[in-house]
Amino acid sequence: MIQRVLASKGLVAYVLACATGITLYFRRPFPENDLMLHLISIRAPLIYAFFKYTYTLFLFTECAINPELLETRIQEAEHRLTGCHYLVLADADFRAHPEFERFHFVVHEPGKSHKAPQSPALEEALKQAQRQYQLSFEPPSQPTDP
Length: 146
What we know:
By secondary structure, this protein is α+β, with helices and mostly antiparallel strands. 56% of the residues lie in helices and 15% in strands. It has helices spanning 2-7, 9-27, 35-43, 45-61, 67-82, 91-96, 120-128, and strands spanning 84-90, 106-109, 113-117, 133-138. A hairpin with a 3-residue loop joins strand 2 and strand 3.
């Protein structure tokens, strides 16, 4: 039963979004006492209401509309559909340059190499550090029927 609930990512995301929203609602309430917002409420009450309700809405949905997470998910979907080109770097080179961690390297062959999705920024960083790398392609995964 618990495994089925945890496997339902939508339900877990909903519960976490509610918990986060409620916590933020009470810890960071809408700043109604702000002078500028008070002026807006007098001159344009509809705009003030829009600000207030949008602020409250984002308390509950910001974790669901996280731009970085959304971009990561889009890239994952593209990789599943079209495959992915990777740059493979020797393990010693990766460990000697902690600045490469921002490119989200993962282990390619344990103890031998790491890989990261190919990007112009990564290629430029590797060239500036004068590190040798290899190109690798992973074809798209085969779709599975449920």
